[in-house]
């Protein structure tokens, strides 16, 4: 495996070198970087032209300019990168760090959401092959995959931003809207839960009735302007995760997994009160530290209470701990929402990555950046989600036809065990490649999304460099995206070996 990785690394370096050379030559021959200055009537035109020639090293032959850039990149190994200057004389390294942080914020969240939801939908549709759910999801995934990015972005701006902001001035639902939402939720729930006709009718009636009662109650509470989850909500939802996680892995009768999960819920309930004052206005170190503890402590509970089932016990406990931590954080975000609305009455923004000169508490600033992130994240996620769900479905169906799956069923194992322990792990192997390339591709492929939503990210850096015939920003873009493609492709190969031990041999 080590020899394989070293060979791949050597080949990847060669590919990056050849691609960078080709890209550099194409960019510098795509136009004249002095074109607008040559046509200018300014008195200091010659001075400005000389400045730009100096900034961009235009007095050197192209191969010497490329070599200068390559030497600057080589200094990155000594943590002293020199990526040159833009034609305005700005350090490209500083531009890259700002653009990369902006894009990574956007891409990382979109990729994680798309992967989690897409894989879950893919498994569900594979298990329920040729059902109404399968046909409905198939239609929606192809629809999402076919959406033009710029058109979908305009729709999101119109309905999820402008329309929502108008509605937030006086959030209310008409009887017709409540009836429509209740019928839609009831229809979707009976499709998801399936079963015979009688069960579907009961599911539809219960779900629709529940929504028809809850929406007026939340409106009466003015929940949409003053939301609160509260201790009860955190506790009930945490219990739901613990019970459902146990049921999906080993079944509720297996106390070796159930008890550590319930202990995690109890511990999360205690932490909810102990950390309440700290979380009113925390910082990122507190949140990161809390997230680490939300993984470590439940993992230890699962390890020492799970006995021979320590693996599933640790997994369910960690999932429960993370959800409890997330719900506690969400409760404090809800509490900050009314103050945020006072500072920003129209909360969902349509352009930019944050509100200029915004001054608020930690949670209010978090909400500002989060609402700016909302629309582009949704757009990138729904497009990627289609690929994940379809690949997962096809992979699960292919694995389901294998001999070892039939053997597992013939041994009397439960369908839950067959799906999640035997089929799902092997079906994840091709998904690893998709996830690796999707993340690397989104870093460089969000050009249109960033342009529509006014994000100063990697896509904007690349577009500006091309328009201005400035190779330095374009090569900085290539350095990040090309390296990301190589690194994540290699990580996919390593993930193969983790999922399938035969690959190690």
Automatic annotation (TrEMBL):
InterPro entries: BPD_transp_1_N, MetI-like, MetI-like_sf
Source superkingdom: Bacteria
Subcellular location as annotated: Cell membrane
UniProt entry keywords in alphabetical sequence: Cell membrane, Membrane, Transmembrane, Transmembrane helix, Transport
Top-level taxonomy: Bacteria, Bacillati, Actinomycetota, Actinomycetes, Micrococcales
Membrane topology, record value: Multi-pass membrane protein
Pfam families: BPD_transp_1 (PF00528), BPD_transp_1_N (PF19300)
Primary residence: membrane
Protein name from the UniProt record: Peptide/nickel transport system permease protein
Domain ABC transmembrane type-1: 100-492
Family: Belongs to the binding-protein-dependent transport system permease family.
Chain segments annotated as transmembrane: 9-28, 106-127, 139-156, 176-194, 201-223, 229-250, 257-278, 284-301, 313-334, 373-391, 431-455, 475-499
